[in-house]
Amino acid sequence: MKNFTRTxxxxxxxxxxxxxxxEKGIIxxxxxxxxxxxxxxxxxxxxxxxxxxxxNITEDTKLYKKHVYLxxxxxxxxxxxxxxxxxxxxxxxxFESKASLTITxxxxxxxxxxxxxxxxxxxxxxxxxxxxxxxxxxxxxxPINKFGDxxxxxxxxxxxxxxxxxxxxxxxxxxxxxxxxxxxxxxYAGKKVKTAGNLNGLLLAGVGYATMLENIMxxxxxxxxxxxxxxxxxxxxxxxxxxxxxxxxxxxGTQSKIKNSLAVRSPYVSGRNGSRCLQVVSYDKKEGxxxxxxxxxxxxxxxxxxxxxxxxxDDIKQGLVKEAIFIGENTKLDIxxxxxxxxxxxxxxxxxxxxxxxxxxxIKFTDMYFNNCNGNIFxxxxxNNEDLENWYGNSAFFxxxxxxADNSETFIDLNNDRRPDFRLRINxxxxxxxxxxxx
Length: 439
Known about the structure:
It comes from Flavivirga aquatica. This is T9SS C-terminal target domain-containing protein. This protein is mainly beta. It has helices spanning 2-21, 312-317, 357-362, 386-392, 407-410; strands at residues 51-57, 61-63, 68-77, 82-85, 90-93, 100-103, 108-112, 119-123, 136-139, 150-151, 168-169, 179-187, 192-193, 197-198, 202-205, 212-219, 226-229, 232-241, 248-251, 255-265, 278-280, 297-307, 325-327, 332-336, 339-341, 347-349, 363-366, 369-371, 377-379, 400-402, 411-413, 421-424. The protein has one domain (24-424). The chain contains 5 helices and 32 strands. The protein has a 26-stranded parallel sheet that branches. It is globular and about 60 Å long. Residues 1-21 and 428-438 have low confidence and may be disordered.
């Protein structure tokens, strides 16, 4: 009887270990990238625009699938209006006028697409390029860590002075609701503006927790794919594909949760100063920051951060690859059950972060899978990472290091152009467990 019981325990331990391994990176019983994503947007053809959106939208407005819409210039949804968009609707950003769509404080967007009928924002050019148009900006009423409100006025070229009031964000309502973005694709955004660099695919500034943000794909953005400034947001099933900027950038005291999300980088697509999959900072400049308020805090679960390369070692030698994650001072990051594959190194800490117990307790890496990276966790400008290796390599954190597994061996089917599968392949067993709701 004792031998039988022991055998059962060994069996259960083996099964539990196997399934535990499969939980790293993006997960799901099925490949949730199917149907609504598009990894070759240049091959998609859409009808000519039949309707124009321009100026201010001051009353509730609905966009319909039967039309194709052209965003012309800086379009603002104001006056607490709701912009509703039917599943399958296509909205094109105008190249010449540097088009953008801004949802102002108090207004909201209801862009609730379907898995089989996503809403698409794309360029109006016949030959599309990153940075063809501006992108989507959502301004909310949740707190930021600056004194007073924030403003995105510099993101607009030739802005009418009367519209400056529509560029402010921030407030005290943590749970404010700016609407829904679900099953939405944003392509070729990130237009360059002289006064502010590049716009972003999706900018969330002071956005509150009641806003629903899931199943959103940003591809070929010249700026950051997703930028979150302050606020408190929950993000799920986001995809950033071959962005020139950062994939996910958190700043200005945001309190964010991101889970089950994917960033795919290319060594040959990057901003002038290099770009990361995940950048967590509390400010760009200390001037104007209220240090009595909370710094940026990000909880990340089941991320897959991958550099798509046929020869990652050669690309690293040529200086084409940077770190996957950058962490600034006065921030918190708790990342768990995530995969980082093909970077130089995997993680870089700001050189202003002292390596001590207090700071290491604020930066947590647990149940991670580091693969094919030129080093794991370093401090900026310091090649000696022995302290960090000893800390995060402790068996209590359950982090796994693999030096040279090829991406084709690491992921189920990332070379499939139509339906790639970036779930982790371990012993040829597909991840079946969903993210726990409490995370």
